[in-house]
Amino acid sequence: MSDLMADPMSDAPQKGALFIVSAPSGAGKTTLCNALQSRFKSLAYSVSHTTRSPRENEVNGQDYFFISKEMFEDKIRNGKWAEWAKVHDNYYGTCAEKLNEMLSSGRHILLDIDVAGAAQIKSRFPESIAIFIMPPSIEILESRLRSRGTDKEEEILKRIAHAHKEIAGSDFYDHIVVNDRLDDAIKALSGLIRKYTGDDEKHV
Ligand code: ADP
Ligand code: 5GP
Known about the structure:
Elements: E1 18-22, H1 29-39, E2 43-45, E3 49-50, E4 65-66, H2 69-77, E5 81-87, E6 90-95, H3 96-105, E7 108-112, H4 115-124, E8 129-134, H5 138-148, H6 153-168, E9 175-178, H7 182-197
Parallel strand pairs: 1-7, 1-8, 2-7, 3-4, 8-9
Antiparallel strand pairs: 3-6, 5-6
Helix pairs in contact: 1-7, 5-6
Bound molecules: adenosine-5'-diphosphate and guanosine-5'-monophosphate (5GP).
Adenosine-5'-diphosphate binds next to helix 1, helix 5 and helix 7.
């Protein structure tokens, strides 16, 4: 984001806990975030906007808001993003107005965003809790991307190349959770949510 742009979140209130979860694509972030959402009813998931095409089974407004490149760039010019980044040649962003509304509601918020976006949110909201999901190895990451079966070979190679950069840039995160056995990773993440919110699972 340009330093010259007015900060769209400068007076945003922060009442609930703000969790940032990042991971290289294929590390299991969607699986883990879904598990957390079904366990912690007090957690509000922030639906991002993207210019990438929907995958099979993805629902507009639920997984992402799918918008055009022109619309995304227009919102960059108008300072409408709380954070945004270009990932794997597509734009992704968190709408400032929507994030503001969620922050005002006092709910705990879960942002599933990349490392560049996480750095922007962390500098605006130093109290936010940044969690990086680490794959057990690059080989396992690659095999998960292939077994997911949603991306073409070219996309998979792009995601693996990007994963190296994301892992290298992950030192500012407050917590690293390795997603080896799914149950263990869910337990570790649930422990962090309980620790920072004081909420039990199924808390409404
Ligand atoms: P991301 O959202 O990080 O791109 P996904 O949640 O889509 O990743 O997971 C990528 C693939 O790996 C999916 O097919 C998912 O079912 C699988 N997966 C996720 N976590 C694990 C795990 N701990 N062990 C084995 N497979 C996993
Ligand atoms: P995917 O295309 O696999 O759904 O996501 C690719 C990457 O974009 C993931 O690392 C994901 O966390 C990231 N991403 C999703 N939404 C946002 C967002 O709103 N902002 C930023 N900066 N990254 C996002």
